[in-house]
Write a structure and sequence with these properties.
361 residues; alpha+beta; Helix Hairpins; 3 domains; 5-stranded mixed β-sheet; elongated; binds adenosine-5'-triphosphate; binds magnesium ion
Amino acid sequence: MLEPRDALAPLRALICALSEPVMLISPDGVVRIANAAADEVFVTPMEGARVRAHLRQPDASALIERALDPETPPEAVHRAVMVIGFASAETTWQITARRLDPDAGIDGTVISLHDISHREAAEAQRRDFVANVSHELRSPLTVLVGFIETLQNAAQDDPVARAEFLGIMSRETQRMAGLVADLMSLSRLEGDERIRPREHVSLTDVLRATIAALRPRIEATGVQLDWAVPDDLPEVTGDHDQLVQVFHNLLGNALKYGADGGRIVIGARLLAQFAAMGGPVIRVSVTDYGDGIDPIHIPRLTERFYRVDRARSRDQGGTGLGLAIVKHIVNRHRGRLLIRSAPGAGSSFDVVLPCAAPVPS
Ligand SMILES: Nc1ncnc2c1ncn2[C@@H]1O[C@H](COP(=O)(O)OP(=O)(O)OP(=O)(O)O)[C@@H](O)[C@H]1O
Ligand SMILES: [Mg+2]
């Protein structure tokens, strides 16, 4: 049955008003109506096109055959997932097809597409995260299980071996405790990333507290720590403990990975303005003169569990969550994290934070 073209006008108006890609297909598989979103997905005007030529992935073409089969009951809803990729990006679409109610007087099937890429990406991220956490917990657990067995058997009457094994077990337990503390920190931060901190905080106090906490490690590495922070820095709006956490990780990293350079500089400067942040801001930098980082790694350093040299970081008790936490805290403070590094010459990690109140000139 072929309706006069005008009979489709209200339907066309409706379909064209929808923002998701939608098409009306005739029983022989020709697209009768397609909105702009559908044309965009297939990068071609779809009206008049044969739908089978465009939905060719096996699941999608099976869906079309089922939906257009005259034997299929009209109330059936058909669904399939299809990935459409053009040069720059891939999108995962859920396709839904359903015959129009035959009593409506138009014989056709409506096909709509729903972008589920974000859902897929979030799901993949969650899977990776669980795999990473399990992997990080498994190695210390394996060590603990092994040593407990040894202590119960062979090393039972050997006080020297016992003391050594207990030392290793204590280190591995601390690693697991550190990992769990970092994971809890991350999940708390994700919860309140949108809530801006309210305290007025002196960055000088924050940096002093950080150095005091790391004093034993600074002394153990024998590195020279230079202080280039002016005495009259204005305050920032922030969360004192979280900012200590930021600089504890940055200075901790400089000590772990950059101490070979023999010198670490903690500097701070007040800037009248900075990029899109307006101003004034304070830019704090933690600079080391160690091995530096290959530029290919820099964009990924703030990903969870990302480590340039897994073995080296692990030896130092690192889990690769430090910079992910830093990034979250800096975001919560509406600040910026800037990483500059030259292989062989060292690295600078800068944190830019907005000042609490305009500085009197
Ligand atoms: N100052 C630095 N010099 C060289 N490499 C660095 C420096 N800071 C960080 N990195 C590299 O970036 C990686 C990620 O750092 P991040 O602080 O996130 O993790 P971590 O220090 O390995 O572990 P954690 O901070 O969880 O204890 C490190 O493993 C290291 O490879
Ligand atoms: Mg770290």
